Amino acid sequence: MAAVSDPVGLGAPWGPARPEPPPTRFHPVHGANIRVDLSGTRATRVESFAHGVCFSREPLAPGQVFLVEIEEKELGWCGHLRLGLTALDPASLAAVPEFSLPDLVSLGHTWVFAITRHHNRVPREGRPEAEALAPSRPPALLVEPYLCIEQFRIPRDRLVGRSRPGLYSHLLDQLYELNVLPPTARRSRLGVLFCPRPDGTADMHIVINGEDMGPSARGLPAAQPLYAVVDVFASTKSVRLIQLEYGLPSLQTLCRLVIQRSVVHRLAIDGLHLPKGLKDFCKYE
User: Fold this and answer.
1) 182: nearest Cα among 200, 155, 209
2) Residue 166 neighbours by CB under 8 Å, 6+ apart
3) Superkingdom of the source (predicted)?
């Protein structure tokens, strides 16, 4: 395997020489109020507003997105989901801290941020003004199907949240796609990843509904295992993991894109002469 400092290997495509990362799962070590389902893909805070810290089961690969969708919200609390990375092995923690901020961060080697519209962006030295600007609106999925973050190219198809199929779903879907809804709205999709740099460090990026919020932290130790951190905090009650395709899209995904191009909105898929399973797949049900 090439060293992290080798710039040639940083952007190597997924393939035989660089296998796709395994499906993401939640770690069995988590906050006291979290319940993870048997599949390891859904985490729910069952009481209070705290003790909701979760981790990825395995360290992330460079360019691998740990992507969650907000499934349930809970009224009456102030605050939202928090997301980031840690170089701490969750299994080595004597106890999972009550909060990711500031408790887990204070243990060191942890970078976690509250998800907001104007997310923290760390400018590079010598280019403070250009990199402090807010990211531009993401292009339409069918116009630009890939999200490019530093040396990585990630299919945007599953990065963007979807409304439940209904009369106005085609309008709501556009709001998710344009990322104009609150970033922690129900069914929004939020992800975290790291991108190694030639000097042996890494930048952490947070993605909201297919839009890269820019580097949120720099200087992460790329040579150390980095686990994702998801704090199911306050008004965020339940999240589920979304699996991504890396490399070439699957035949299913390509067929779905072709079918979606031929209809006005997802409800119109019901009128097509297709098997029900394929219709549901095309509607993201």
Assistant:
1) 209
2) 267
3) Eukaryota
Q: Give Dmax (Cα) for the chain.
A: 58
For residue 5, with 0-12 CB atoms within 10 Å meaning exposed, 13-18 middle and 19 or more buried, which class applies? middle
CA distance 170 to 216: 32
Pairing of β 110-114 and β 146-149:
unpaired
Count of CA atoms in the C-beta half-sphere (13 A) of 58? 11
Sheet strand arrangement including 201-208: 34-36, 42-45, 236-242, 66-73, 189-196, 201-208, 211-221
Residues 6+ positions from 164 with CB-CB distance below 8 Å: 187
Strand partners, 85: 111, 228
Q: How many CB atoms lie within 10 A of CB 265?
A: 18
Q: In this structure, are residues 192 and 208 in contact, taking their beta carbons and an 8 Å threshold?
A: no
Two structure tokens written together for 253:
């995904």
Q: Which 3 state secondary structure label does DSSP give 92?
A: helix
Averaged pLDDT in 10-residue chunks for the chain of 285 residues: 37 60 95 98 97 98 96 93 98 97 97 78 58 53 75 87 72 76 91 96 95 93 97 97 82 78 76 84 71
Exposure of 203 in the CB half-sphere (CA atoms within 13 A): 20
- Please give the Cα distance from 4 to 6 (Å, whole number): 5
Amino acid at 265: H
| 95 dihedral zone (left: phi>0; alpha: psi -120 to 50; beta) | beta
Provide Rg for the chain, Cα atoms: 19
